[in-house]
Amino acid sequence: MVVLTGQSLTIEDAKNVLYEYMFVSASVESMKKVEKSREAVENIVKQKKVVYGITTGFGKFSDVLIESDDVEELQWNLIHSHACGVGEPFPEVVSRAMVLLRANALLKGYSGVRTVVIERLLDLLNARIHPVIPQQGSLGASGDLAPLAHLALVLMGEGEVFYQGERMEAITALSKVGIVPLTLKAKEGLALINGTQAMTAMGLVNYIEAEQLAYQTEAIAALTLEGLRGIEDAFDPRVHEARGYHQQTEVAERIRRMVSGSQLITKQGELRVQDAYSLRCIPQVHGASWQALDYVKEKLEIEMNAATDNPLIFDDGEKVISGGNFHGQPIALAMDFMKIAVAELANISERRIERLVNPQLNDLPPFLSPVPGLQSGAMIMQYCAASLVSENKTLAHPASVDSIPSSANQEDHVSMGTIASRHAHQIIQNVRRVLAVELICALQAVEYRGIEKMASFTKSLYEEARKLIPSITQDRVFSKDIEIAASWLNKMDWKAFVDRNLPTTQYGY
């Protein structure tokens, strides 16, 4: 069980909830804070104080006073008017992450919602009911208003959800499991939609996928090193310790362990003096991407436990402050950084693919073809990888450098963080397919060199991959192979594979 406190949620906890469907509950102490915060809101309404978002309109309407009899209608209107997201829905796992993160943020006790709102969010998680939330429509400041409004609709028994593999009306799914829809009270609608949970949820799923992908790139690169008879000296620990980046040093160490005992790896001067950068600089390039991913992880774990709505209630209601924690700039910058870092893994991978297939750069059969000329082999797979890499370059353009004013210029600088996180997700999918191409080519190259000469780890990877991807003995529709390989990389338990086949190492060191 994962117990939410509003302060201690980790990426590892989130993985257990998102992918293992671990049961989620709220800590007793956190719920007490929520109750005190709610009392403050009710006192504000009772005393008819003018407080933004509780007894006033929103955005440019912040100067419009709302009568106490109308506060429930205000919440209803807010959710319905703001639920204007468009486009394809977020992946279901991202929707699940939004529900988790929204519940955790409310548990900090600064938002003024009733405990029943948090209970309903946890009910959705534990029943595996996930709101259908359109991906487009958020500016990433004032919170992810449009996406989170679609989440809030479900608590009211409206909108659509994913449940048991089907897309259906929310009220149908809620009825099946006995969840009673809510009527939102003062401040609750605003508390549900004012926050960065869409971009952060997407960022969280991105990080989980990117982390696994980054480890996999190293193993696939190790296969390529064997296929091209790469030089091991470039991975000598002294080289990397001399520079001082621990991520670079760790990549080099993992590569050394992966090719340990290989008869295909060469020494400096044995076949050539130096390898090309795409082989020799694997630790430097991959290590730099790891530095960026470490930065992203730090920002995500802060934001996952942050109060990001507005206004926030302090000192048992004595102080209600209207601020700007809903602004997504920290996550926008992190996601833009992630885009560049992950795209670079594909850039260098595509160059390794070129070295595997180009007969002017190796001594393998041209394009790894079984019958060069009559059969094209991996020729067009390299084209595919090059296309994906080029597409990533356009997606990697930073979203956070853009801003469009909204709400009659009251909200005059926005983060575009949700766009950044969505583009990062697209890049990750493209990178995985580029790596799938490198994997297919590297498998073929080591086969030509001699499987019996491989390191034990890379041979294990070869044997697992060959269960799904047959040797190239005849031209075929390689699109299917690429998608099968990419799906395998996405779904495999990489940590378990590493622990099983490199028992003397710790995952990630």
Automatic annotation (TrEMBL):
Biological pathway: Amino-acid degradation; L-histidine degradation into L-glutamate; N-formimidoyl-L-glutamate from L-histidine: step 1/3
Cell compartment(s), UniProt: Cytoplasm
Cross-link (5-imidazolinone (Ala-Gly)): 141-143
Keywords: Cytoplasm, Histidine metabolism, Lyase
Residues bearing PTM 2,3-didehydroalanine (Ser): 142
CDD domains membership: PAL-HAL
Molecular function terms, GO-annotated: histidine ammonia-lyase activity
Processing after translation: Contains an active site 4-methylidene-imidazol-5-one (MIO), which is formed autocatalytically by cyclization and dehydration of residues Ala-Ser-Gly.
Pfam families: Lyase_aromatic (PF00221)
Catalytic reactions on record: L-histidine = trans-urocanate + NH4(+)
Protein EC: 4.3.1.3
InterPro entries according to UniProt: Aromatic_Lyase, Fumarase/histidase_N, HutH, L-Aspartase-like, Phe/His_NH3-lyase_AS
Family according to the record: Belongs to the PAL/histidase family.
Name the UniProt record assigns to this protein: Histidine ammonia-lyase
